[in-house]
Write a structure and sequence with these properties.
elongated; binds magnesium ion; single chain; binds adenosine-5'-triphosphate; 15 helices; alpha+beta; 16 strands; 8-stranded mixed beta sheet
Length: 408
């Protein structure tokens, strides 16, 4: 039997690697402009961390988490998302003691047991950013702007930013009552999951993907109508700042996100082209405290690398590769020439296959190199190399001395 990759776990290779790097490099470049620092996090955490942060009754924890036991019977999880880990690290290393506020970003694989389909895998990659110690709405505006800048920089079009406010704990209580009252009246129309959600976490009903539930939810009371004055002002300010930044956004009063830790601002960048969310995030002002840290308002976002990859074109950047072709027993000389060129920052491909000139030039074309560097016994004798431009076919000799001086 041939062993294949595990369902939902995919290889990224060839052209896709270029796209992957493009997304990653772009995000990193933009995060740098906002002065974020990187944190490299473990992939495995205690399962408890996600129970307590993402929420016990969310789909991510209930249905999508990879959980296993170590040899001592402790329950561990492959991380389904990054925020919980960053918060854990922020508390564990007392990062709050160092600066007035802290801005961190991470990149890496996440794991969710979902039904694989286009843009949905069991191992996928996220880049996320978090700000700790910022309560003001201009921080929310900046977080959304970063997401927007990344999409714009990648040339991704047809994206709309959806925003909503989930208010503070008190607002949520009041809203929960109203929502429950409404849902009780339409209970027969809800799916089985949603009926159980009503008892445990009725806000999750707003996030249900079942068509009939989505219809029911349209008429449900809206959380924005239950915001206290402070939360209302925060939301208003955010919208003012987004307008000032010229970020096109749409208010979506049913946007609640799939994780329980959010307060006040939540947002998603949704692709009309794909009908999928590309980037999502929001504020989580209680999470640090709930996980045992000092009260710290915080917010962030995560982007799905594979989803952004679906929306960027193939990248045809041609590099100036030197293909070094040795003829005969000239490897001592040829290897030295290769080293010399690489020392000067040139990309050198040393031909690992034997063959005559015709064969070697065929390899050169297949490898899509710009120059063939031919080294035979004559070249060794004369302390030179022959360089052939593969596009123009022009050929010339260069002395080793010139090469050392810095051939260009
Ligand atoms: P969705 O509603 O599409 O399931 P989500 O709300 O579960 O997304 P988040 O937990 O907010 O997603 O993760 C942030 C981003 O990570 C998503 O917007 C998406 O780009 C990406 N993402 C989430 N799950 C997957 C997955 N299974 N495969 C690929 N990318 C994913
Ligand atoms: Mg999901």
């Amino acid at each position: 039997m041939n062993i294949q990759s595990v369902r939902g776990f995919h290889d990224i290779f060839g052209k896709d690697v270029k796209k992957f790097r493009k997304v990653s490099d772009t995000a990193r470049r933009i995060l740098k402009l906002y002065n974020f620092e990187e944190i490299i996090l473990p992939i495995v955490e205690y399962m408890e961390l996600f129970y307590r942060s993402v929420g016990e009754t969310t789909d991510i924890v209930q249905k999508e988490m990879f959980v296993f036991e170590d040899r001592k019977g402790r329950k561990l999880s492959l991380r389904p998302e990054g925020t919980a880990s960053v918060v854990r690290a922020f508390i564990e290393h007392k990062l709050y003691a160092l600066k007035p506020y802290v801005k961190l970003f991470y990149e890496g694989p996440m794991f969710r047991y979902e039904r694989p389909q286009a843009g949905r895998y069991r191992q996928f990659h996220q880049i996320g950013a978090e700000i700790f110690g910022a309560a003001e709405p201009f921080a929310d505006a900046e977080i959304i702007k970063i997401a927007y800048d990344i999409l714009e920089s990648l040339g991704i079009k047809n994206v709309i930013i959806e925003i909503n406010s989930l208010g503070c704990k008190r607002d949520r209580e009041a809203y929960r009552e109203a929502l429950l009252k409404y849902l009780s009246g339409v209970k027969e129309q809800l799916c089985r999951d949603c009926i159980s959600r009503m008892d445990r976490n009725p806000l999750r009903v707003l996030d249900c993907k079942v068509e009939t539930c989505r219809e029911v939810v349209v008429e449900a009371p809206k959380i924005v109508d239950y915001l206290c004055d402070k939360c209302k002002a925060h939301y208003e300010d955010l919208r003012r700042y987004l307008n000032a930044l010229e970020i096109p956004f749409r208010e979506n009063p049913n946007l609640v996100r799939g994780l329980d830790y959010y307060t006040r601002t939540v947002f998603e960048a949704v692709s009309d082209t794909l009908g999928l969310t590309l980037i999502a995030g929001g504020r989580y002002d209680y999470l640090v405290e709930e996980l045992g840290g000092p009260p710290t308002p915080a917010l962030g976002f995560a982007l799905g690398v594979e989803r952004l990859m679906l929306l960027i074109p193939d990248l045809e950047e041609k590099e100036d590769i030197y293909f070094l072709i040795p003829f005969g027993d000239v490897h001592e000389y040829a290897l030295q020439v290769a080293s010399l060129l690489r020392k000067q920052g040139k990309i050198v491909e040393y031909s690992y296959r034997k063959g005559g000139l015709k064969k070697q030039l065929e390899f050169a074309n297949k490898l899509r190199v710009k120059y063939a560097v031919i080294i035979g016994e004559d070249e060794v004798k004369n302390n030179e190399i022959t360089i052939k431009d593969m596009e123009t076919g022009q050929q010339r000799k260069v002395k080793l001395k010139e090469l050392i001086r810095g051939y260009s």
